[in-house]
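Thread: "does anyone have the structure for this chain?"

Original post by V.I.:
We have the sequence but no experimental structure in hand. Need at least a predicted one for the grant figures.
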Amino acid sequence: MLTKKGKYGLKAMVHLAGRIPGETTLVTDIADTNDIPKKFLDTILGELRNAGFVNSKKGKGGGYTLAKAAHEIRVGHIIRVLDGPLAPIQCASKSSYRRCDDCTDEKTCSVRLIMLETREAIATILDNRTLAEMRALAKSEEAEFMYNI
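Reply from O.Q.:
Generated one for you, tokens below.
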């Protein structure tokens, strides 16, 4: 399950993807617009900065910007930085594999086999969708509710 940290991180990244490239956004604006606790968002943005997803600028005119174009950032990469591996259990993880203590034969473990399939399905979607595509999903929903005269 996606944690609040992961969810808030994605919301913040989508917010930044909607800004003019290079235009800084204050953390309070991101927090207020997306109903995210500011202190928690500060921590999340720090992790995203350390991972190279956002840049920060201090002082007057400071704030956050995307470090790369939104179409270059994969949703799965953001989630892994904030929440860790996509696999539901460690024995199904590619990056954080650990054998289960109670498993006698991984090759025939039905729990592991279905979780491997689940992990692949999740990774296929999240690693093939960009931040720009994620942002576009919300914009297409908004367009359905617009009424023009």
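V.I.: this helps a lot. The chain is about 50% helix and 5% strand.
O.Q.: and The radius of gyration is 18 Å.
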